[in-house]
Amino acid sequence: MSTTTTTRRLTMAQAIAEATAQEMARDDRVFVMGEDVGKYGGIFSATTGLLDQFGPERVMDTPISETGFMGAALGAAAEGLRPISELMFVDFFGVCFDQIYNHIAKNHYMSGGACKYPLVITTGIGGGYNDAAQHSQCLYSIFAHVPGLKVVVPSNAYDAKGLMTTAIRDDNPVVFLYHKGIMGLSWMSYFEGSTNEVPEAQYTIPFGQARIVREGSDVTIVTLSQMVQKSVLAADQLAAEGISAEVLDLRTLVPLDRAAVLASVAKTGRLLVADEDYLSYGLSGEIAALVAENLDTLRLKAPVRRLAVPDVPIPFSRPLEQFAIPQVDNIVASVRGLMRFTLA
Amino acid sequence: MDATSEQLLWMYEKMIEIREYEETMVKVYLEGKLPPKIQKGLAFDIGAGPVPGEMHLAAGQEPVAVGVCAHLRRDDTVVGAHRPHHFAIAKDVDLNAMTAEMFGKVTGLGRGKGGHMHLFDPAVKFSCSGIVGAGAPQACGAALAAKKLGTDAVAIAFFGEGAANQGAFHEALNLAALWKLPVVFVVEDNKYGISVEKSASTAIASNADRAAAYGMPGVLVERNDALAVFEAAGAAVARARRGEGPTLIEVNTDRYFGHFQGDPETYRPKDEAKTLRQHDPIPALATQLRQRDLLDDEADAALRTRISARVQAAYDFGRNSPYPAPEDALLHVFAD
Amino acid sequence: MTDIILDDAVWADVDEGTEALLQEWQVKEGDSVEAGQVLGVAELVKTSHEIFAPSAGRIVRLNVAEQDTFARGTVLAQLEA
Fold first, then answer.
1. Do C21 and A187 count as a contact with CB atoms less than 8 A apart?
2. Is-cis flag, bond preceding A173, omega within 30?
3. Binning pLDDT at 50, 70 and 90, where does residue A224 land?
4. What number of CA atoms fall less than 13 Å from residue B62's CA on the CB side?
5. What is the spatial distance between Cα A315 and Cα A136, in angstroms, rounded to a whole number?
């Protein structure tokens, strides 16, 4: 019997489905619920193949009743089952957010640790394909803002499988947000890099560990999700101009790898946060605050710069959407701008 | 309540307009989205082409729109859902501006910001949204306003049978009955909530049976037929205008295309749409019109030519209009 | 030599000129296959279709690479009895 681990290239969707299938095979308590997760395999292919493998008792198509099935996920988790509950688009969180932020997030705390809720909420995020204001948001900041939810945002297939396995095994509520534009769907244009080598065997990636996707010395780009792929393309362009950009993929927002952010910024002295969520009151502000709080131990050569959606709903029309959502060009321009500074 | 000749002809023409609009969109939507003109490695690119994004077409569901809207005035409110074209056309939304909106042009209803699921035409009190169930409470609000302002305007909430399992639906129904609001809830049962059949999502057979639980009459229209819808809607709208409160109508209708364009529809029997088209409501109404001497071959040909021209003009307007400037994305977050 | 193509019926309702995407091959050049065996998967618009071996034999050539698109009637691969 061979002990070598084989790898093959998987799309991020395939990686998520594989992680789920392997955990479901390993642990009878894991089951999936959501809209169109069964026969359809998930609108963004996150549950493809699961119904055939595990049957309708473990892969359950729900009515359009988010409050109903999110609340049911909580109740089932309280009884020791391990539900994976899919919210089709993160934009729909409004119809069930009470169950998520007042109960799923808080019950463990309010019970003084007595009750556990081992559940995963998977959801599709992101724009860039003209799905307009109610179907294009990222919103991970909103989930990260409420204490009690772990927040995971993979940028590629390899990470997605490891992080999803960790999420399912975690005894806490985990919100797993996958960007539709990097799932490797055959019907949506893509950025290179999200489809990559994934081991067949199971593996985990711990939460709270950011990853340096590309080393650099002149500027740190702190980023996540599809924006990682855009940042890598930007870094390639910048390298040709003699600018060395380090791309740091956060991977999880809760827990957040603060040490990695600070170490990188201490090294380069310049920080750009590239975020596809709204600018104000979110992730990019959090990273900027983190650095500001540590100015006694690191030195900045330039002011912090944040690139994000400029506080407008995502517009439908192509030129408007391309303007609102940060593009590779915007990242390049922002970094060039940062390079013009060399503060004491 | 019988339809007048004018109403019959209006419904017929509107159904033809809707059908032609949707059938045209099938082709236009695909422009630029298929290989070899798209990114390598894709079979379809949803964000490419002149009409990008999602597209939900209503061919087959025309009777629901025309049967209800035949009773509406300009100052009555219609709130639709993610499959809105037939309601918009039946409510006399500006067809050119509606089409330009789907092309993302600055001449669109929303200046290109909303797109196909978010059409707003305040001149005819039409709006729609992409969040399932969200329209029901909003229609209640319009009805509440009519009551407070002392008009006899009514509000219609259109949504699918899938939405009837969403919390907002249940809250809206109770509110409407409690406050005796002049609203009519119209459930379009096209049997599928994306891939899930009604029997797999709803514990009872007909949402009309839910109405009594909320304190209002429930009417089931079992045929996908404009006159059947007309009759049920007429009674409901009249009831609302008299101040007697809300009604729930459920119509069994047929969705000819997929949930969205590009939907592989693997959850549906392969020839189901072909079978459904054998009961096409448009020729059925034509037969009714001919029986009443309201239509003959010549008149039919003439009106179809006129309608084709109108639809074509709308698509041309959409194509030829300019895009907004990119920085326009920053405008209209707040009113001045 | 036998030509392997995507079932022509699959193109019936599709506009002229539309190409399909070769998603993946499940065999390599040199493999022996049985009649009716699934050799690969193609996607046309948004529907997946399997590519079948019309007869038993050995795969001599794969003419279209994974993630490339191809037109109706294209010889995707060839097999030798």
1. no
2. no
3. very high
4. 28
5. 9
Could you report the per-residue pLDDT of B48-65, keeping only the tens digit for each?
Answer: 999 999 999 999 999 999
Q: A9-197 is classed in which CATH architecture? A: 3-Layer(aba) Sandwich (3.40)
Interface of C with B in 16-75 (CB under 8 A): 18-21, 23, 43-48, 67-69
pLDDT surpassing 80 at residue A219: yes
Residues, chain B: 336
Q: How far apart are CA A338 and CA A332, in angstroms?
A: 10
Residue pair A320/B113 in contact (Cβ under 8 Å)? The answer is yes
How many Cβ contacts (< 8 angstroms) between chains A and B? 156
Q: Which amino acid is at B134?
A: A
Closest approach of B36 to chain A, Cα-based (Å)? 13
- Phi/psi at B220 (5° precision): -105, 125
List, by residue range, all CATH 3.40.50.970 domains of chain A.
9-197
Domain with CATH 3.40.50.920 in chain A: 211-340
3-class DSSP state of B270: coil
- Is A318 at the interface with chain B, CB within 8 A? yes
DSSP characters over A188-240: S---TTSSEEEESS-----TT--EEEE--SSEEEEE-THHHHHHHHHHHHHHH
Q: Write out the E strands in chain A.
A: 7-10, 30-34, 59-61, 82-89, 120-125, 150-152, 174-179, 196-199, 211-214, 219-223, 245-249, 252-254, 271-278, 305-309
The domain A211-340 is placed in CATH, from the list 3.40.50.300, 1.20.1070.10, 3.40.50.920, 3.50.50.60, at 3.40.50.920
